[in-house]
Design goal:
This protein is an alpha/beta fold and 206 residues long. The chain has a single domain, classed as P-loop containing nucleotide triphosphate hydrolases (Rossmann fold), CATH 3.40.50.300. It has helices spanning 13-24, 39-44, 46-71, 81-94, 100-114, 130-140, 150-165, 186-204, and strands at residues 2-7, 27-29, 75-78, 122-127, 171-176. Strands 2-3-1-4-5 form a 5-stranded parallel β-sheet, with helices on both faces. The longest helix is centred in the first third of the chain and has 26 residues, at 46-71.
Amino acid sequence: MHVAIAGNIGSGKTTLTSRLEKHYSWEAHYEDADDNPYLNDFYQDMQRWSFNLQVYFLRSRFNQIVDIRQSGKKVIQDRTIYEDAFIFAPNLHAMGLMTTRDFNNYMDLFRLIASFIQPPDLLIYLRASVPTLVHQIQKRGRDYENSIRLDYLKRLNERYEAWISTYNEGKLLIVDVDNNNFAENPEDFGKIIQSIDSEIHGLFEK
C-alpha cells in the first residue's frame, strides 16, 4: 500500500509523514531537501537553477516510486512526483523563471516517466493558507527558505487547488491545516487517523 502526502512548502508534510510512520509502523520515504545540491542555489537565482532543480526532483521521486513498488511494504511518502510536474515546473515557467525550451523538455521527460509508474493508493492533501505557510516556514527556520516570496507561495497555492480539484488518480483525503494543528494537538491528529482508517478500509474492500 502506497500513501502519499501532498501540499505546499510549509504545509506540514514531513511532520505528518513522521507521525503516520510511527502510528501505523509504515515505512517512510522523505523528500531529500536537506541533501539536494541545487536548493540553495535555486533560492538565490531561480532562473539559473530552476531546470536543474526540477530534473533532480523528478529523478529522485521516480527512484522513490520504483523502490516503493518493489518493496511490497506499506509506505508513506513525503510529496509526490505529480506536484513537480503540475505545480512547481509550470509555475516556474509561468513566472519566466524557466525557459519554454527547458519546460517542454522537462514535461516530455515527466510524461515518459509517468507511463511507467502507478499513482498512490491514497493521496493526503494538506490545504493551508499563505499566512499559515509563512508561520510554519519561519518556525522551522531553514536558511535557504528565508528568501521565499509571498507571491511565490500564493501562486503555488493556486496551482495546488487547481490540481486537487481535478485529481482522479485514486483516493483523496483533504486536511485543512488552518483548522487542524495535528503537529501539536493529539485530538486533531486523531481526526486525521480516523479519516485515514476509513479510506484504508475502503481500499481493502475492493
